[in-house]
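Homework help thread (please don't just give me the answer)

Our assignment gives two proteins as sequence + structure token strings and asks us to describe the second one. The first is just a warm-up. Here they are:
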Amino acid sequence: MTSPAHPDRLDKKQPYNAKKIRQKRKLVRRAIVFCLLLIPFFLWMQSQLLDSDLQLPFSNNILFFAVININVLLVLFVLFLVLRYLAELLFERKTNRIGNKLKTKLIASFLSLTLIPTILLFFVSLQFVSTSMDYWFNASIEDSLTESLKLAQSLLHEKEEQANLISETIRKQLQTLDVKTTSPGSIQKNLENILRFNPINGPDFIKIITADKNYEITVRAPQLRNIIIPKIPRSVYDTVIASGRSENLLQELKIGDLVNCIALISIGKDQEESAILITSLLVKQKQLRRMTTISQGIESYRQLKHFKEPFKFWLLIILLIVTLLVIFAAIWFGLYISRGITDPLKNLVFATRRVADGDLAFTMERESNDEIGLLVDSFNQMTVNLNLSNTKLAETLAALERSSQESVQRSRYTEIILQNVSAGVISLDENGKITTINRFAEKLLNIDKSLFIGLNFNNVLPPYQAQIVNGFIDELKITGKITVEQHIKLNVLGKNYSLLINFTRLEDEDKQSVGFVLVFDNLTKLEKMQRMAAWREVARRIAHEIKNPLTPIQLSAQRLRRRYPEILKEKNSIFDQCTSTIITQVDELKTLVSEFSQFARMPKVQKSTDNLTELTKRTLFLYKEAHKEIAFICTEHEPIPSFNFDGEQIKRCLINLLDNAVAVLPNGGTITLDLSLNEEKESVFLKVADNGPGISKENKLKLFEPYFSTKKTGTGLGLAIVSTIIADHSGYIRVKDNQPTGSIFTIELPMQNGNTLQ
């Protein structure tokens, strides 16, 4: 596994040597374990020294100082380790490294679990030691020990007094012996009787030495028969002989101590003191040991009492050292446990960030066999699965992207077709919400599709249009058909359209209805062209049939007038009136035939760059001079650039419209010509408005059809020709009411062929 030296910093340039770190931690752990093992060893040494029989003075007890100092060094070493780890933890918290919060919680937990009972135990132990020391060294115990020692010492005094008493008794018996009984044998027998008849309170050893050392008499108790009794020093004898008083001497034997009473005696009546009597009592070893123990105990007690306060201080130091060791060990153990948890977690965090950054092939090295190791294995398995899944996902995404691109291309192609098809398309969902409006429908209906998409058609369409759509839906539901078709007339903003509507129900693969699509074709131009073609054919035939006889008729009338001039001179001549009427009517018929011919043979549009404003002003000037009773007004909202159009034909349209306007104002009025551009600067609007009587709604529908006229003498071809000319320019002509009276004719001409505003 490749990891940074500090995983929590996520420095990807530095390698993370896990093996070296593990070796370092192993050495540190060994050192700590070794130090912890030394602590109980030195504590044991201190307890042994406290319980030993060495009665060394405190000033010379260097071993105690060594042990204390070693413990202090151990405390300092553990303290160093703890402070080192705490410094690292503090640094990690300041740098906000990963795992510092968990470490802090673990250390706080271990410290809380250890500190309170340890401190409590420390003070309880301290109080216990102080109370125990005071109890041990109180006056009653010392008095008891002193009395015990006196009691033990009185045993020896009693033995001495008993030996003196027995010696005095034997001395008196020996002084009363007759001469016959003073022989060594008799004395021997007499002494043996004393031992025999006093086995409990009698002496254990009797010895008589004569002054001239002619003989020695020795009597032993059974328990001393095989015991070598040491000789009494000569100096003791000399002292007894010189002073004449008895002396006591204590001798050590294997089985105990021998209390001797050495006295100067005489044997027989009226004899001089010429012998030494040694009377001995045995103090057994068991009794001596008790005496020795009591003596040593009181001596040790007195020595310890002398060191009472130093001992308290030593015990306080020991308790304090143990307490600190426990606290520091708890802190270190918490740090150790926390590092054992947080370090693998750091590596896991680093690894997860590597994976989050896209390195799905990243794996970790398993460092332990515990749950963390299982977690590492699970993480590695997860990265392997993620890598495989990512590979499969990449392949799937690539396939989906290709499919999506193809779908987008198809959708875009379909959208392009839908937007450029020469038919209006509007789609609805099953609930009647508008989902699609193509460009043709938007333009024809003069709407902004962004205001309609997502709304129910009943809420946005005018009532009569919504009624048409609802009729289609009802027909599909009633008849069960997929498609219905209908030819309707529709008025949009004053313009009449002839539409062929195809309304189709959309179904999915399961034959379930998912919506409707409405397709409508604008047949207005087609029908108009059909009518215009028909009327042109009619006009051509009428012109042909009428034109042929008109010339002979006119020539015949003129010839009659030249042939019979005298008749013309007659007043109120019927001949003159008839011939004049014939000639006049023939001229009018020729004019009508000429208009028929012009309508039948509309010249081809010859576009050239011209200025519509100048053309309008030139045309209007003629009418201003001819019709003084009418006010002619020409307004230009903004400069109109020059563009391509057929000036002669547009002038003809303008003259036709002005003639109609003048005709409806026989008593004078106002005619206004208004020039403007649309917002996109792509079309020019030319409006001709009058304040005459206006046009009825019924007449507006047929106004631009051939041979329809509201004037008695009108041919009905003027506005039809105007409509044809404007249509040849790819423009539109509309009519609406003027306020308060009159009509407004609006001509819309596109500025084509790349012309731009100047």
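The one we have to describe:
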Amino acid sequence: MTKTIIAIGGGSYGQLKTYPDGRQVQKTKDSIEIDKKMIKLTGKEHPKIVFIGAAHGDDESRFLVIKKYFSDDFGCDVENLNLIDDSKRPNKDDLQKIILGADIIYIGGGNVTYLMQILGKTGVDKLLRQAYDKGIIMAGNSAGGCVWFDYYGNDEDDDFDGTFETFSPKKALGFVHGYFEPHWDTKPEEGIAKDSVSKNAVQRMLAKNNISGYGVDEGAALMIQTNCDKQTITEIESKPGAKIYKLAKQNLQHINSGNER
């Protein structure tokens, strides 16, 4: 049995975004080639996706964007799994049925620390492990990519001044070894900046703690497939120019082997 994780570095789903100054911008579909690959792996014409949006407070509007994207573009059956509100969260037995009955578990972006707290509180972390071991595809964007690895870094709303002293690895689910840093290519005006200072802070933090990992651009993804003792790591590039970087000590290397477009 092949176990699969697809960790996406961020991106949009073609939604109309309204900025604080009133501007409206039609966003691009940054991960469409990644998602085609993900859905093809299920071997089904209309696979079932269970979406977990706890990292962004189970925001209904975000789910509707995801649902429209995967149903309109790919013909998927998309179910929203609310975990935060006790009145909306399924009971323990139903949680198990929903998660283990999925073809794909897809976790959205937001705050990884809060997401980890909710997964632990509800016992969904253990159910995700069961689903992964069963061969259900595990996927996620941004925070939803971070969560599968051993470690992640500071969340976007953490008090981080860009120095080595304030940056530390935090434990995630640990389905995949190493560290995952999304939005590696974003600019300050796009909201989640990865400038030279913060990138250097990530590299120094990894070196100090002897951790290797990946910096992933928006519109790129790592696909990690494990079958018995054999593991294959593939880069999937959907957005033109999107790349994945291997972060080890203070060296930055673009992954060249096994990439797909």
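TA reply:
I won't write it for you, but here's a hint about the kind of observation we're looking for: Residues 53 and 83 are 8 Å apart (CA to CA).
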